[in-house]
UniProtKB/TrEMBL annotation:
Domain TauD/TfdA-like: 195-383
Pfam families membership: GBBH-like_N, TauD
Chain ranges of the Gamma-butyrobetaine hydroxylase-like N-terminal domain: 51-153
Species, as recorded: Desmophyllum pertusum
KW Metal-binding (keyword) present: yes
InterPro entries with a match to the protein in the record: AlphaKG_dependent_hydroxylases, GBBH-like_N, GBBH-like_N_sf, TauD-like_sf, TauD/TfdA-like
Top-level enzyme category: oxidoreductase
Name this polypeptide is given: Gamma-butyrobetaine dioxygenase
Signal peptide region: none
PANTHER family, A to Z: GAMMA-BUTYROBETAINE DIOXYGENASE (PTHR10696:SF33), GAMMA-BUTYROBETAINE HYDROXYLASE-RELATED (PTHR10696)
Amino acid sequence: MLSQLKHVCKFRFVSQRLPNISSKLLKVNYAATAQSTNKLTVQSIQKADISRMLHVTWNNDTANRYPFVYLRDNCQCSECFHESSLQRSFDTVGHLKMKMDIQPERVDVQPRSRLAEEERAWNEVVDVLQNGEEISVTWPDKHVSVFNSEWLHSRRLTEEQDISKGTSTLNREGVIFWNAEQLQGKIPRHDFRVSDHFEVKAKFGANNLAYTSGDLPLHTDAPYYDYVPGLTFLHCIEQVSSEGGANQFVDGFHAAQQLKENDPNTFNLLSTTRFAFVDFGKDAFGEFNKKFPRLTIELGENDQVIRFSFNNHVRDSVMLVSPEKSIQLYEAYLAIGRMLRDPANQIEHKMIPGDMVTFNNSRVLHGRSAFKITQASNRYLQGYFLDWDAVYSRMRVLAKQFNIPFGL
Ligand SMILES: [Fe+2]
Ligand SMILES: [Zn+2]
């Protein structure tokens, strides 16, 4: 198969050495090597420096553009994308906060088989492999991201995508009647409200990054639900004696207010454009696939902030915007990310056994520093979600009982 690649052109791109790079397009054509198959493959790639994007033409003669920042953010290697939880472990804000202009230093395309392993390290920056079935991008720090063509094509950045749920019968008609026979096996069996608590403990084959011992960047819980948990409770049962394992908390409403004052355009973008969040995989109840598009900053009446949603590890690699808009969104995302990580905006607390913390999951972000477990020392929290409806109900009952004024 690789012998069919003999017509491949070879280009090398060194950005700092080329004048007028903004007008320079680099292209390799794979038309001559395309196989007669229905499989979607890459026909050609171009790099347009001015647009900070990789242009990909597919073997069906359609084309799409992918910002380099998008490609770096969505690397699928085991270092950047956690294999068992199927969540992004790449710390986007930490790595890219000052690198919106990230791009490969060089573009070099040729058949992988013709290169000795040691040559490849510096020689391939963008490489179309296996007759266009994969694109490999090597970043300035030598990190390599390999993208399967069909995976990448299914994530093409276009505003035409519609992930609304309006196509289901229930959404169209509003009501569905099932008889007993049709009902068999159709009742959803799994939701976070079914279980009474969740256990935050490092475990092998974790289905969530919370259940590893690595850094857990600031986030709000479960934004992939339409009906997100109102309050999170974390109860410390066991804590590591070594360093790490502390929790960080940041007030998202305060960060939003700072953003509104200092950078109103970014505030407007984050309060009008959604990121989709996903959680998929398998657990004891079977396969699950949750998805919901949310605004980072959700405004209510009188434009006050009513919800803040931020969660890098479950932010979807599918973006519902054009390539240009995705670049604006990444700029905005990194701007609010920098603000959230400003030490002046954070409090840190390492819980000891017996401590419990609760917070408004629509307002306060929480994170955790990495820790080391030993045979003698582990970290074990029990978590619980409550809905505000239950909390307010209880507060009204108590307010009445103790004759305390309470609002609506
Ligand atoms: Fe969490
Ligand atoms: Zn990676």
